[in-house]
Amino acid sequence: MKIIISLSLAIVLVSCGQGNNDMATLQHQVDSLQKQLNHTYKPGLGEFMMGVQEHHAKLWFAGINQNWPLADFEVHEIGETVDDIKQYCTDRPEVKSIGIIDPAISSIDAAIKQKSVEQFKKAFTDLTNSCNNCHKDNQHGFNVITIPTGLPVENQRFKPGQ
After folding, report:
1. CATH code of the region 45-137
2. What are the residue boundaries of the structural domains of the chain, listed by start?
């Protein structure tokens, strides 16, 4: 009986030792993956903001040309980029203020649904002011966003239709 208990104990100990080897292998894999993740490219806040700025300009021309499907697309692109900023730029203190844009986005959504150019222009002005207020709140007041005066791209039509 003592021999059986001793053998059983020996088997358990050997099995536990094998578990430590498996654990060490797993830890090595985790460390390796973490190292790779640390070196993975992650866009910076400025890159995201350049995207917002381009969609902001496209949104303006879509709205004033009453291309409501395009305006809807552009405002949602801005929203998606804001969501990406919240996810990928958590190390930036400015991100805490980005919610300042939400009411203006909602107003633009409503204007698009109403297909109202006047409501759109007011909501767009509010959006632009929200951007500038956020910049001021985060010591970037020197970066002033305006209502666009020229097309953001030359190879896109902003008027509705084919």
Report:
1. 1.20.120.290
2. 1-40, 45-137
| 8 A C-beta contact, residue 34 and residue 27 | no
Contacts of 124 (CB under 8 A, 6+ apart): 59, 60, 63, 108, 147
pLDDT in tens, the chain (162 residues): 556 655 455 555 555 555 567 888 888 887 787 787 777 888 899 999 999 999 999 999 999 999 999 999 999 999 999 999 999 999 999 999 999 999 999 999 999 999 999 999 999 999 999 999 999 999 999 999 999 999 999 999 999 986
Which amino acid is present at 111? A
Ramachandran class of 115: left when φ > 0, alpha when ψ lies in -120 to 50, beta otherwise: left
CA 78/CA 98 separation, integer angstroms: 12
Record the tokens describing residue 157, joined without a space. Answer: 């039509």
The verdict on pTM exceeding 0.70 is: yes
Burial 48-79 (b: 16+ CB within 10 A, else e): bbebbbbbbbbbbbbbbebbbebbbebbebbb
Residues 6 or more apart whose CB falls under 8 angstroms from that of 136 comprise none
The answer to whether 63 and 71 have CB atoms below 8 angstroms apart is yes
